[in-house]
Amino acid sequence: MNVNKITSTVRQIGPRAFRSASATLLGLSMVVGTVGVAQAEGGAAACEASEIQATPSGLAAKKLLLDVAKANGRMVAVGEFGHIVYSDDDGSTWTQANCVATQVTLTSVYFPSEEVGYAVGHDAVILKTEDGGENWAQIYEDFDAETPLMNVFFNTPSYGLAMGAFGFVLETKDGGASWAQRPIVEGGEDDFHLNDSFRAKDGALWVAAEFGTVYRSGDEGATFERLQTPYEGSFWGGIGLSDGSVLIFGMRGNVFRTTDAGATWTKIETGVTKSFGGSVELANGTVVLAGLNGAIAYSDDMGKSFTTISRADREGYNAVIGASGDQIAIFGESGVKIMPNTAAAALAAGGSSS
C-alpha cells in the first residue's frame, strides 16, 4: 500500500482512507475490544500458495474495521491488513474469512446479492466473493494509480462502480470481470475525493465527496449531476431514508437533510463538532450516525433532530449496523463493539450527553 500520496495532501479524504492510512503509517495495533474471532475451517491451507493472502489473526475483529454490510443476515466487515471477518449471530462471535487475496487496507464492502459481494481498498484493489464472504478473490488492482478506493456500489448483478480519491472511478458492466476508468461527470475535470455512495428511496444513486460536493444520478449511475450544497467542508457519508429524505454528513458534526433531491438543504444540529462517517436506519425507524471521538448520534424523527452521546472510550467509529434485539454494532479503531440502539439506553450504559 502506498500512503505517501494520502498523508502528504492537506485535503480531507474521509475517515475510511485517512484513518486507515494513518493507522498503517504509524504502525498502530489496536487490540482493545470485546469480541473475539475464529478462523474459518480450511484457513490459509485452502488458499493458493502463489497468492498474497491476508494473515490469519485471532484479533482480526479487534483491529481497525472500516465498513460493514449484510449478506443474507450475515454481517461482513472489512479493515486493515486485508482483514475480512463475518458474523452469523448478530455480532456476538466473528470468523475471519478463509482466503482474502490481499494484505492492503480494505475500506468498503457491498453485497448486491446474498452470496456475491465486493470489497475495495488501497492500491485500487477490488475483491469479489461468491460464497457470502467466506472466500475472496482479487479481480482488480492498480499499484500505479496510487489511489485508494473508498466505496463500491452495484445497481444490478452486472453493473457496478468503485470510487475513491482524486475523482478516481472504475466501472464494470460484467459483474467485475473487467473494469474501465471513467469520470464522475462526463466532460468534467472534477478530482474530488469520492468518499461514499448510497441509494435513496426513489432509486437515485448519491455520492458524498469533499469540498461540500454531492453528486446524484437518476439513471443508475450512467451520468451524475453535481448538486449545490450550503457547506464547503468534506462530506464523509450519506444515507437515503425510508421517508424519501436524504442525509449527508461529514466534518465537525455537520449534517444536512434534503427532501427534494438536493434542491434545498436544512442544516441539522447534532450538538457536537465531531465528524461522522457511518450511518444506518434501523428496522424501527431510528437513524444512527457513528463518528470520531466516540460520538454516536440517534434520531427518532427521520433525521430532523439528533441526540448525540459520547462513548467513554472516545474512539473513532466509521460504520454502524443493526444487531439483534435492541442493539447496534459499531466498527472502528479497535474493531467491533455492541451497544444499545437508543440514546437513553446508551446513556444508562455509561455514555455521556454531548
Tell me what you see in this structure:
With 354 residues, the protein is mostly beta strands. It has three helices and 30 strands. The protein has a domain of 182 residues. A five-stranded mixed beta sheet has the order 1-5-4-3-2. β21 and β22 form a beta hairpin. The N terminus is likely disordered.
Structure described in brief:
The chain has 354 residues and is mostly beta strands. It has 3 helices and 30 strands.
Annotation keywords:
single chain; 354 residues; mainly beta; five-stranded mixed β-sheet; globular
Number of strands: 30
Structural class: mainly beta
Bin the strand percentage: 35-45%
Given as residue ranges, the uncertain stretches (5+ residues, pLDDT < 50) are: 1-13, 17-35, 42-46
Helicity range of the residues? under 10%
Query: What is the overall number of helices?
Result: 3
Q: pLDDT average, as an integer?
A: 88
Chart the SSEs and their pairings.
Layout: H1 4-8, H2 14-26, E1 37-39, E2 65-71, E3 74-79, E4 84-87, E5 94-96, E6 99-100, E7 106-110, E8 117-121, E9 126-129, E10 135-140, E11 149-154, E12 160-164, E13 169-172, E14 180-181, E15 194-199, E16 205-209, E17 214-217, E18 225-227, E19 235-240, E20 246-250, E21 255-258, E22 266-268, E23 276-281, E24 287-291, E25 295-299, E26 307-310, E27 317-322, E28 327-332, E29 335-340, H3 343-348, E30 352-353
Parallel strand pairs: 1-5, 6-10
Antiparallel strand pairs: 2-3, 3-4, 4-5, 7-8, 8-9, 9-10, 11-12, 12-13, 13-14, 15-16, 16-17, 17-18, 19-20, 20-21, 21-22, 23-24, 24-25, 25-26, 26-30, 27-28, 28-29
